[in-house]
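Lecture notes, part 5. Sequence design as translation. It can be helpful to think of inverse folding as translation between two languages: the language of shapes and the language of residues. The source text, in structure tokens, appears below.
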């Protein structure tokens, strides 16, 4: 058992490190140390921060080894320095950062070889899984930085799948209880815990995320010029930020749109989920469409609940880990797939692409579950509870499977657009409609 666990941990860590290398070795040193946006760190900061977190938790805490570089802890503490200020810090130079993370990884693998998995922190490999997830989360952040950088394309991947018959319609989800969250997933983070029963009234949820074509219709109908479609803070932000379309969209001069994708201009594909929209834009679109954003609980019920068994699944398609046939994850493509591209990933309720492609905004704030306990440190989740954060679910094409499951929770400010976020719509239904089969 422990050897199989060790092998699984080693594979997750090796996969993450290969991705980190790919994201940091494709640009020269000047671009590694540059700040490509004031809301993002220099890539070299993310690189060394990945190593520093691994040192803190796996080398020092789990392995009880002497520090590698305790003198740099303050530089890579995300709570001590705002992203906008990080370029001014005396950061490790690229070669130094690479050497540091390599040294830490060697020591961390030595800790893994000797791990006993007999404490709360190591049970099921949690501490190792936490670090694998942390690295992949920063890899997705670095991928977003690449999208923001100017210049020619340096990342390449095959195009995402197309679909001849995109799904339309909605699923009716009957009223009732389901189990939300988890108490058994070994690498689940504290904000996903504990499992608890949630009762919901009947609701309808769209079978697919909102597409580029649907969103273009909102723009054409004056969606960005009609304050009645926006909340008061949403309209204030739209006005101040000058929003007129999703980030990276540019008009083609003939009534259509182009989109900049990692340094390449490409025509907007009608049936892809819209991406790089903030929560306020999603809220305005929903009002225009006569619907609303789903709550976080509604999203999870649509993604996990199996009405045939009454059980909550790990993923929409069941309990098996994601693969190439069920979800667009892991940066295999540098864009969302067209809706309907993963029929093997459909939920028991018939809902498509709840995992991968685009993070999906929900209407819910980021709050703790009943019985929440911060573990292993408050700064992972607890300090973010409350405030204006909105929950996103499902992962994106840039999310690795280790950091994405049916219970995984992401959160961000409602103005953020650099993340790979889209949305789908929901609506209330009458009791009579709730008895009808889904479309």
């Amino acid at each position: 058992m422990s050897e199989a666990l060790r092998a699984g941990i080693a594979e997750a860590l090796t996969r993450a490190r290969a991705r980190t290398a790919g994201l940091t070795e494709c640009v020269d040193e000047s671009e590694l140390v540059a700040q490509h946006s004031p809301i993002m760190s220099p890539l070299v900061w993310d690189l060394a921060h990945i190593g520093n977190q691994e040192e803190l938790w796996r080398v020092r805490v789990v392995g009880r080894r002497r520090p590698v570089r305790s003198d740099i802890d303050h530089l890579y503490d995300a709570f001590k320095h705002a992203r906008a200020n990080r370029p001014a810090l005396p950061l490790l130079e690229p070669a130094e950062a690479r050497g540091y993370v390599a040294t830490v990884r060697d020591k961390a693998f030595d800790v893994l070889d000797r791990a006993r998995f007999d404490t709360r922190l190591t049970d099921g490999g949690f501490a190792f899984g936490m670090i694998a997830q942390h690295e992949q989360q920063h890899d997705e952040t670095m991928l977003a930085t690449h999208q923001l950088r100017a210049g020619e394309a340096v990342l390449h991947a095959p195009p995402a799948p197309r679909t001849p018959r995109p799904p339309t319609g909605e699923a009716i989800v009957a009223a009732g209880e389901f189990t939300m969250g988890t108490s058994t997933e070994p690498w689940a983070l504290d904000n996903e815990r504990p499992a608890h029963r949630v009762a919901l009234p009947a609701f309808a949820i769209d079978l697919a995320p909102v597409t580029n074509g649907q969103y273009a219709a909102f723009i054409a109908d004056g969606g960005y010029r009609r304050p009645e479609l926006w909340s008061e803070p949403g309209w204030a932000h739209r006005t101040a930020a000058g929003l007129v379309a999703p980030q990276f969209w540019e008009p083609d001069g003939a009534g259509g749109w182009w989109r900049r994708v990692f340094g390449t201009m490409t025509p907007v594909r009608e049936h892809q989920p819209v991406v790089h929209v903030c929560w306020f834009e999603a809220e305005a679109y929903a009002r225009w469409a006569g619907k609303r954003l789903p709550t976080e609980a509604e999203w999870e019920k649509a993604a996990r609940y199996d009405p045939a068994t009454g059980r909550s699944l790990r993923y929409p398609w069941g309990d098996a880990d994601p693969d190439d046939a069920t979800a667009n994850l892991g940066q295999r493509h540098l864009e969302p797939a067209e809706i309907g591209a993963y029929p093997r990933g459909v939920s028991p309720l018939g809902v498509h692409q709840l995992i991968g492609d685009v993070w999906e905004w929900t209407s819910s704030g980021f709050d703790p579950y009943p019985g929440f306990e911060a573990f292993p440190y408050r700064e992972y989740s607890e300090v973010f509870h409350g405030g204006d954060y909105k929950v996103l679910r499902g992962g994106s094409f840039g999310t690795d499977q280790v950091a994405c499951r049916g219970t995984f929770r992401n959160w961000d400010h409602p103005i953020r657009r650099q993340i790979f976020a889209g949305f789908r719509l929901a609506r209330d239904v009458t009791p009579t409609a709730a008895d009808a089969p889904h479309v």
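The translated text above is only one of many valid answers, since several sequences can fold into similar shapes. The mean pLDDT is 96.
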